Amino acid sequence: MQSNTTCSDEETYQVRKLEITDKNKGFMELLHDEFQKICDSVSNDEFQKRFEELKSYGDDHVIGVIEDVASSKIVATGSVFIEKKFVRNCGKVGHIEDVVVDSSARGLQLGKKVVGFLADHARLTGCYKVILDCSADNKAFYEKCGFKEKEVQMVKFKLYDIFSHNFVGLKITHVQLQISLIIILLNALIITRFVI
Ligand SMILES: CC(C)(COP(=O)(O)OP(=O)(O)OC[C@H]1O[C@@H](n2cnc3c(N)ncnc32)[C@H](O)[C@@H]1OP(=O)(O)O)[C@@H](O)C(=O)NCCC(=O)NCCS
């Protein structure tokens, strides 16, 4: 739906859709640096498969990126997917997710630009609203992007992710979590044998 745009006179930063070559421009590292607890390493094959899958959804699922043209590095990203409803006369809602700006490039209005790109995409595809979830710390940022607080987020994780989510503050990875669960199970088995 959107054409690629350049967001400064100096053409320093290019705002555009994700391209397959962005894996070699630090796209996964950007996600990993911010979401290390929930972003494991992704092989080239896995990346290509997921990229092709998302591409097949066309305008219904778009990942936006900002490239620092001088260094060919991806410094910001975010995604939007379009939910198609029956209510509101078969209305559409845009859902923004996974917004992140490289720690070295924060404060340069890049977060605002990537969110603007995603919100514009939702508007151009006919969405009557765009929504997102965020932490209390980021509320002021999204207000600067034109959003306002409304209603309450509810969530239900799979059992495995309940543990992983609750340990997020301790930065426990999935592998560490699996090892911990195995140790707990082994201990339980040993205790059971002694008791019996
Ligand atoms: C939140 C984040 C995306 C902001 O990106 P950024 O490029 O630094 O933000 P911008 O420079 O575009 O800021 C736009 C405005 O919001 C303000 N702002 C940015 N982060 C803010 C925060 N946490 N609290 C209050 N205001 C904030 C800026 O001061 C700026 O104000 P101005 O327009 O009056 O100058 C970035 O800090 C980040 O990647 N954080 C870690 C990942 C994360 O939390 N993502 C959000 C997931 S919901």
Task: State the main characteristics.
196 residues; Aminopeptidase; six-stranded mixed sheet; 7 helices; binds coenzyme A
Q: Name the overall outline.
A: globular
Q: Find the count of extended strands (DSSP E, 2+ residues).
A: 6
Task: From the alpha carbons, calculate the radius of gyration and give it in angstroms.
Answer: 20 Å
CATH homology group of the largest domain: Gcn5-related N-acetyltransferase (GNAT)
CATH topology label of the largest domain: Aminopeptidase
The major β-sheet equals: 6 strands, mixed
Q: How many structurally independent domains?
A: 2
Ligands bound to this protein structure: coenzyme A
Could you give the order of the helices and strands? EEHHEEHEHEHHH
CATH architecture of the largest domain: 3-Layer(aba) Sandwich
CATH class assignment of the largest domain: Alpha Beta
Share of β-strand residues: 15-25%
Would you tell me the overall average pLDDT? 88
Strand order of the largest sheet: 1-2-3-4-5-6
Helix amount, in percent?
Answer: 25-40%
Q: List unreliable stretches of 5+ residues.
A: none
Continuous helix count: 7
First-residue to last-residue Cα separation: 67 Å
Keywords: Acyltransferase, Endoplasmic reticulum, Membrane, Transferase, Transmembrane, Transmembrane helix
Pathway: Nucleotide-sugar biosynthesis; UDP-N-acetyl-alpha-D-glucosamine biosynthesis; N-acetyl-alpha-D-glucosamine 1-phosphate from alpha-D-glucosamine 6-phosphate (route I): step 1/2
EC number: 2.3.1.4
Catalytic activity: D-glucosamine 6-phosphate + acetyl-CoA = N-acetyl-D-glucosamine 6-phosphate + CoA + H(+)
